[in-house]
UniProtKB/TrEMBL annotation:
Function: Catalyzes the formation of sulfite from adenosine 5'-phosphosulfate (APS) using thioredoxin as an electron donor.
Annotated EC: 1.8.4.10
Localization per Swiss-Prot or TrEMBL: Cytoplasm
Active site per UniProt: C344
Residues covered by the Phosphoadenosine phosphosulphate reductase domain: 157-325
Protein name per its UniProtKB record: Adenosine 5'-phosphosulfate reductase
Metabolic or biological pathway: Sulfur metabolism; hydrogen sulfide biosynthesis; sulfite from sulfate
Positions of [4Fe-4S] cluster binding: C238, C239, C319, C322
Cofactor section: [4Fe-4S] cluster
Coiled coil (residue ranges): none
Catalysed reaction, written as an equation: [thioredoxin]-disulfide + sulfite + AMP + 2 H(+) = adenosine 5'-phosphosulfate + [thioredoxin]-dithiol
Length: 367
């Protein structure tokens, strides 16, 4: 019943005017997929504040400015979070048909190259928050980092787990604080059967309440991996299909994600801090500072079950086509053996830069 109602709302467009109370505007943002803010007069600045407030609440749908709008307001409208500007038909000041032509780009140079002000403010605040958390908890033990993260990002945080060789520790620490926190599992459909049975064993052992398997989009998988051997032809495209895109979609609803990354695993992780901001959301790395010996002793102390492949020489476990027992001394030696890859792309800084660029909105003029 509830989901039917929310689907209906999710496809709705709501119109509010500049006199709408802030709380009513936020209620509209929760209900609607698109919002029109009507400017009764071009000099009415309340529409900018409402737009910024709606964007800062996390609203990601279309925000359209309608009514009596002047061309040189475009820069302000953009930075307030509008992505469509639709002046009224026959507006006495600005006929829709003339809007695009009459707009003087030189007056608001670079409007589309800058982050909207609401977004820039949110990014700056998030960066400062991460810096403060690292200053206060940079050397704290993993259980403290998890407890702090769950408090600071309550309701907006998930843990990402591969249910791999060292995954049980982070999951157990999470379960000690809150078993209901969502745990995201990238079900690439290429996992070892041992990983899947270990996942089920850990879920039961730790009584995790909300483990969410993330699978690739079936249509995309059919189109891009028709024979199921994309990992042979282009392993980066395969990881993009089976890991990066499903994770991006799942993370949309979260401000923070807890990872199991460690400095001891190298591959660019040597300087990992417990709290990180990637330009989009906060990553929390509670076990960043633990080395394999410390992890092994915590497994013993906490009586955690071991991944079955650990006894067969695997020190890091991913998908079966791309994982081998470790041949060297490095924990991730067995990942993508024979290639120079060591990361699947979900923590790729290039991806982060792409995500940040994607947040730069291009305003559409309707006229
Ligand atoms: S690790 Fe291998 S099989 Fe798994 S998604 Fe990446 S390329 Fe595909």
């Amino acid at each position: 019943m509830g989901s039917e109602a929310s689907v209906k709302h999710a496809h709705s467009r709501v119109e509010i005017d500049t006199a709408t109370a802030p709380q009513a505007a936020l209620d509209a943002a929760r209900r609607a997929a698109a919002i029109d803010i009507r400017f009764p007069a071009f000099k009415d600045g309340r529409g900018y504040s409402l737009a910024a407030l709606i964007r800062e609440s996390g609203f990601a749908g279309e925000l359209r400015a309608t009514g009596d709008i002047l061309p040189d307001q475009k820069d302000y409208l953009t930075r307030s979070g509008f992505d469509v500007i639709a002046p009224d038909e026959g507006s006495p000041r600005w006929a829709r048909a003339s809007f695009t032509h009459a707009y003087q780009p030189g007056l608001a140079k670079g409007a589309n190259d800058r982050l909207p002000a609401y977004r820039a403010r949110a990014l700056a605040a998030r960066k400062a928050q991460v810096q403060a958390l690292n200053q206060q908890y940079g050397d704290a033990p993993p259980e403290t980092i998890i407890a702090v993260a769950l408090e600071v990002f309550a309701g907006r945080i998930a843990m990402l787990s591969s249910f791999g060789i060292e995954a049980a520790l982070g999951l157990a620490l999470l379960a000690q604080v809150d078993r209901a926190v969502p745990v995201l599992f990238l079900d690439t459909q290429r996992h070892f059967p041992q990983t899947l049975s270990y996942r089920d064993q850990l879920v039961a052992h730790l009584r995790l309440e909300d483990v969410r398997p993330l699978t690739p989009d079936p249509a995309e998988a059919r189109a891009q991996d028709h024979d199921g051997r994309l990992y042979e032809r282009d392993s980066e495209a395969c990881c993009d299909l089976r890991k990066v895109r499903p994770l991006n979609a799942a993370l949309d609803g979260f401000d923070a994600v807890i990872t199991g990354r460690k400095r001891a695993h190298g591959s660019g992780r040597e300087a990992l801090r417990p709290f990180e901001f990637d330009g989009e959301r906060v990553k929390i790395n509670p076990v960043a500072g633990l080395d394999p010996a410390r992890i092994a002793s915590l497994y013993r102390d906490m009586k955690l079950p071991a991944h079955p492949l650990g006894a067969q020489g695997y020190t890091s476990v991913g998908c079966w086509p791309c994982t081998a027992p470790s041949a060297g001394t490095h924990p991730r030696d067995g990942r993508w053996p024979g290639s120079d890859r060591s990361e699947c792309g979900i923590f790729d800084p290039v991806r982060t830069a792409r995500a940040e660029a994607a947040s730069r909105r291009t305003v559409r003029l309707i006229g």
